[in-house]
Write a structure and sequence with these properties.
single chain; 227 residues; alpha/beta; Rossmann fold; eight-stranded mixed sheet
Amino acid sequence: MTAPRRLIIAMDGPAGVGKSTVGQYVAKRLGYHFINTGEMFRALTWKALEDGVDVEDQAAVLALARRLKWEFHPTEGGVTLKTFIDGQGVTVQIREERVSRNSSAVAANPGVRRLLCRLQRRLGRGGGIVMEGRDITTHVFPDADFKFYLDASPEERARRRTRQLKASGLPADFAKIHAAILQRDLNDLKRKINPLSQAEDAVVIDSTRLSMRQVAQKMLRLIRARA
């Protein structure tokens, strides 16, 4: 069964909870596009580091973001819309540890968040999307047809991120990743502009003891029952 193309399915949750894996699965089953908004902030972080732009200099990072040519092309079977900047795909580069360490500073930049929010809303216009991030249900699409908040323990999220990095051929140290996740949680919760929070009407799913497939199937049952 394919849900109507008009639906906007919004997902929020902390780092490493499995939103991308779940979102891709759900989007594929529904015939939708999947968008990982975190990749946009990571792509900008990587570009700033590459160009020698201080990620703490909000004006300079925003100026860089405005200069870039942002494009989003379907990959992975046509389901996932990947971020391209100035014509370059950056799927592997944005998983580098230096990007992870510095992305919170870029994500906390008010001007950057406003700019990327406009891009995200443009991508979601017309529906037929599964979009995940930190403020999708609360800010980008507060009137989304379906809202989900995925959660899991920090230890489980660190294990998942470690496996993900190793599968991509990148170095992965569990202790460092666990510490980075705890710090990222703190940064996301304390961010002044659009901090991570659960929308009051979001369905909360704790995936600590569930497989990503089980989480996705639970979401699909709820979507199909109401759609």
